[in-house]
Design goal:
- By secondary structure, the chain is mainly β.
- It has one domain.
- It is about 0% helix and about 60% strand.
- It is built from one helix and 14 strands; from the N terminus they run αββββββββββββββ.
- Strands 1, 2, 3, 4, 5, 6, 7, 8, 9, 10, 11 and 14 form a twelve-stranded mixed sheet that branches. A two-stranded antiparallel sheet has the order 12-13.
- InterPro entries: DUF7781.
- This is OBP3-responsive protein 4 isoform 5.
């Protein structure tokens, strides 16, 4: 989303609008709902910036007011207890967690402020969209769009042009695709 090297506007539509539909993260999630809890196994494949694979075991309450989630990564020997995302403002969330790494015998805590808006000098929207195909099978798509809105400027009696049009830019990508298989059980 940087301007052209010579400071002028890009000339082709390919430079103005770039949409990448190759996801860098693929997740396959298996979930089982038992007595108010969701037990899950996540298989996570990462394509960029490096190829990586992770597995996670996840346990969290099903209630809408759930306040925590427990995650264990057997390959890294990490265990974490995370709070749910706590709304600080309409677009800003806080999440805190405590964890232990058995390989390094280290315990620590983390916090994270997140938003669906923002970027480095560029406007950004990040979002997740869920598509339920059949009961028990959902697809979730994580996407983002970085954009610069079109802008018209002008001046009279200065060294600036009388009329200048910046056509704006859009760079969008499909970052994550998740297939979620859920088995509900009212018995047990």
């Amino acid at each position: 989303m940087d301007p052209a090297p010579n400071g002028e506007e890009p000339t082709s539509w390919d430079e103005l609008c770039n949409i990448n539909l190759i996801p860098s993260e693929l997740f396959l999630k298996f979930r089982k709902e038992i007595q108010g809890l969701r037990v899950g196994v996540n298989l996570e494949f990462y394509n960029a910036p490096i190829n990586d694979f992770q597995t996670k075991l996840v346990l969290k309450p099903l209630s809408p007011e759930r306040r925590w989630k427990f995650a264990y990564e057997p390959l890294h020997q990490d265990v974490r207890l995370l709070s749910k995302k706590i709304p600080v403002t309409k677009f800003l969330n806080l999440q805190v967690g405590v964890g232990h790494n058995f390989k390094m015998n280290a315990t620590g805590w983390k916090w994270k402020l997140t938003t669906c808006l923002g970027g480095d000098g560029v406007s950004r929207i990040r979002n997740k969209t869920t598509l339920g195909l059949v009961p028990g099978l959902d697809f979730r798509f994580g996407w983002r769009a970085d954009y610069v809105l079109p802008e018209a400027t002008g001046a009279l009696g200065t060294n600036e042009p009388l009329f200048n049009l910046n056509s704006g830019r859009l760079q969008a990508s499909l970052d994550r695709v998740e297939a979620i298989v859920t088995h509900s059980s009212d018995r047990l």
